[in-house]
Amino acid sequence: MANHSLLEAIDALKSTRVRMTPQRHAILEFLYETKAHPTADEIYKALEGRFPNMSVATVYNNLRVFKEVGIVKELSYGDSSSRFDCVTSNHYHVICKNCGKIVDFHYPGLDEVETLAEHVTGFEIENHRMEIYGTCVTCKTAH
Ligand SMILES: [Zn+2]
Ligand SMILES: [Zn+2]
């Protein structure tokens, strides 16, 4: 999938029947400005000052809509703290084991792994996910 800019994302929403609201716009804008792969809670905390009537549930529902339209990717880690990524093109993530920071890492897609997995197991492979763990620059220098 192509890498969307904020304007393209807004266009993609317009082309569906999703109504653009000030809250939706603010959530999208925040996602595209931060490269931090925020959780719904972090988005809520960043925007609650501007939208006092907004709840975490509202943020969640909007993120779900964005996900359905294909302009946001959800990175789930087996608990409730899913992180959201507006870079929907294929890329990998390097994750700090200390502070949880996620940094995009662009590397040619390992498509041959999928082909090989398909051959070996007979599965119909859909996608794969690779994560690289370590200590980020900030945490490294804090020691
Ligand atoms: Zn760190
Ligand atoms: Zn990412």
UniProtKB/TrEMBL annotation:
<dbReference type="InterPro" id="IPR036390">
    <property type="entry name" value="WH_DNA-bd_sf"/>
</dbReference>
<keyword id="KW-0805">Transcription regulation</keyword>
<dbReference type="InterPro" id="IPR036388">
    <property type="entry name" value="WH-like_DNA-bd_sf"/>
</dbReference>
<dbReference type="Pfam" id="PF01475">
    <property type="entry name" value="FUR"/>
</dbReference>
<comment type="similarity">
    <text>Belongs to the Fur family.</text>
</comment>
<keyword id="KW-0238">DNA-binding</keyword>
<protein>
    <submittedName>
        <fullName>Peroxide-responsive transcriptional repressor PerR</fullName>
    </submittedName>
</protein>
<dbReference type="InterPro" id="IPR002481">
    <property type="entry name" value="FUR"/>
</dbReference>
<keyword id="KW-0678">Repressor</keyword>
<dbReference type="InterPro" id="IPR043135">
    <property type="entry name" value="Fur_C"/>
</dbReference>
<keyword id="KW-0804">Transcription</keyword>
<keyword id="KW-0862">Zinc</keyword>
